[in-house]
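Encode chain A's predicted structure.
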Amino acid sequence: VQIVFLFGQTNQQMPLPPTGAEPQTPILYREYDTVPLALEQPIDPENYVLGPGDRLRINISGGVFEEPITGEWSLENIDNYILVDPTGNLIIPRFGSLNVLGMTLADLQNEVSRRARDQIYEEAQVAVNLIRVRTFRILTYGAVNQPGFITVTPVTRLFDCLRYAKGVHKYAHSDLVYLNRDGERTPIDLKTFLAEGDLQSNPVVREGDRIYVPFNDEMATQARVFTEYNNNEVIVTGFVRSPRRLTHIPGYSARDYIAMAGGILDIGNESGCRIIRADGS
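Encoded structure for chain A:
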């Protein structure tokens, strides 16, 4: 579907990045394939629960010892960058496999410290650092503009999930959002978060969570009418503020798409609006 206003469009060129320029990302993050993650506050090792995809740096200093051949003093140091595998196992050189599902970062450091003192050196010093947090997928469904799975992190909050799902449908319930976790459905009052900044009303999501946004009472019986898996596009062009392609959202009218394109310019002619179907009619 195309919505056209007297066929006019801005031809704006986008600047190209300079060629031969050095990447702006610090070399440390390029080397280990990670970038700094925006956080609300520092991650607490006592509360951060590990899972598949977390990337860790484990450093074990075994103390000073004398080389048996040369007689020189050396410092034994084991430094590894390790990824938690999809089954939750961590393969630590010299220690073997360790399942970390359900363990916090602090629990892991305590366990590695215990093994290091038992197997390497009784005064071994252990440091466990979280280099990159994992990503995982959760389901958002119901009255959202793009139902399906979205990719989040262990520090993503529910309100962000709705943004990743392209926002809520115009017929969504104005007060209700449900968080399904461990077989329980909990109503979440996002308005309390937005009005008062109450973070309890905007919880951090976990693996296995499902977010459901119901339709309003008038449209609840027509939920299937406003849901489809065919992600066609609607092109809005001509004298609107921001000509663009928009994902087709069931239930939205031509006026809705014009509004999402920024509305009609002062020089636009509303009575000249045309809808061109996919077959050209």
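The CA atoms of residues 100 and 108 lie 7 Å apart.
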